[in-house]
Amino acid sequence: MSTTLVTGGTVVNATGTAQADVLVDGETIAAVLAPGSRLLGTDLKATVDQVVDATGRYVIPGGIDAHTHMQMPFGGTEASDTFETGTRAAAWGGTTSIIDFAIQRYGERVEDGLAAWHEKAAGQCAVDYGFHQIVGGVDEFSLKAMDSLVDEGITSFKLFMAYPGVFYSDDAQILRAMQKSRETGLLTMMHAENGPAIDVLAEQLYNAGKTTPFFHGIARAWQLEEEATHRAIMLADLTGAPLYVVHVSAKQAVEQLAAARDRGQNVFGETCPQYLYLSLEDQLGATSEEWGDLEGAKWVCSTPLRSRADGHQDAMWRALRTNDLQTVSTDHCPFCMKGQKDMGAGDFRAIPNGIGSIEHRVDLLYQGVVTGEITLSRWVELISTTPARMFGLYGRKGVVQPGADADLVVYDPAGHTSIGLGKSHHMNMDYSAWEGYEIDGHVDWVMSRGSVLVDESGYVGSKTHGKFLKRDLTQYLV
Ligand SMILES: [Zn+2]
């Protein structure tokens, strides 16, 4: 068991900031002390195994990305990051825990889906990992299987109002699953878009010769996000199920969430970096020498990028300030252009949906501090503390305090990061959705449960370090 003293930094928690030294003993934080403290008359610096000088820098709890899809099968291919490459990229970016999605498809058993994801992840993760359970076929068997999820440490499950024929649940299925949510305490996560209507629009656009990636966003109109969000909220209200709406991108969907919260309903919302920074206009007319008008496929994700002229991005930032949205996850679901996104040449419907950002979330959200959109503490709350509480990890994760896991990041506000710039990232992708983004701040040093993952020499972690996180029920409900 080794000891580390992180000294001279500014410790930032969701509750505030303080000049403090952090003493790590083994896998946990032993003490948060006034700078230069002596313990029982001893100079700590002289007694610990290693000293990390964080002078002039922030010491924050490791990031928690509560929405990732490593090696997820989609549209005849598979997300290009494995648990190994994806969690290594997470570590590079200051994220020390992920919650990925185990998948049950229609006709499959929930237990088998979960076992398959355990198999994929075990011994392959640089950082700690948990699972949500996707229930892609709500029937008597999957409903029964949901009874034992809490005991397995899987305290949240996800339904889809989109993707008919793949993951789609109709209203009757949603109602039954939400009744189960109410009964078990499982948090219902919802992909809220009206899939059947989207499919009609997408087909009509395709038949009219509108086949480029831009039309992906036109087919997935904001009205269909607002409508589905409202429907999910009403079904949750009826059943008493707590609801967490994933990857919110339409300002009208935020309005629905805010209204429900104002009525006292247990409804939460997540957005993603792409909905804060990127827009449908960026996709319109996107073309390159290499890819022609398929270039826009780089930004095909669902929910889609929204119009900047309509103010969706500003609305997301505003909602993060006012707590109408509570978390920022990545929905990390990377695909390469070559051999994956290019399957949709000539038909936007065949482009695998997803953007890879797991390495950049902590940095991208820090830009909100730089520009004055959010405070330092709110930054930490969004990237770590709230995801911890939302998904039953708080105390162990999400905070720099004695007894918590020693998941720490030393962040340099005076540093600089080129997050696009060719293939300088560590995600297994042949492009970056963030090409050209030069930003303030830098992840200098990362520790997970007392083990250093990233230091000045680069990545020094191991794929056998990450452990499965058995999660408690959401800590937002009594
Ligand atoms: Zn997702």
UniProtKB/TrEMBL annotation:
| Keywords recorded for this protein, A-Z | Hydrolase, Metal-binding
User: This protein is called what?
Assistant: Dihydropyrimidinase
One Pfam match, given by its short name, reads Amidohydro_1
The portions of this protein that span the membrane are none
Q: Which organism is this entry from?
A: Microlunatus flavus
Q: Please give the InterPro entries that the UniProt record associates with this protein.
A: Amidohydro-rel, Hydantoinase/dihydroPyrase, Metal-dep_hydrolase_composite, Metal_Hydrolase, Metallo-dep_Hydrolases_sf
Which Gene Ontology terms cover its molecular function?
Answer: hydrolase activity, acting on carbon-nitrogen (but not peptide) bonds, in cyclic amides; metal ion binding
* Gene Ontology CC annotation, any one: cytosol
Post-translational modifications reported in the UniProt record:
Carbamylation allows a single lysine to coordinate two divalent metal cations.
- Taxonomic classification: Bacteria, Bacillati, Actinomycetota, Actinomycetes, Propionibacteriales
Residue numbers carrying N6-carboxylysine? K158
What sequence ranges are listed for the domain Amidohydrolase-related?
58-452
Q: Which domain of life is it from?
A: Bacteria
Family designation:
Belongs to the metallo-dependent hydrolases superfamily. Hydantoinase/dihydropyrimidinase family.
Q: Which cofactor does it need?
A: Zn(2+)
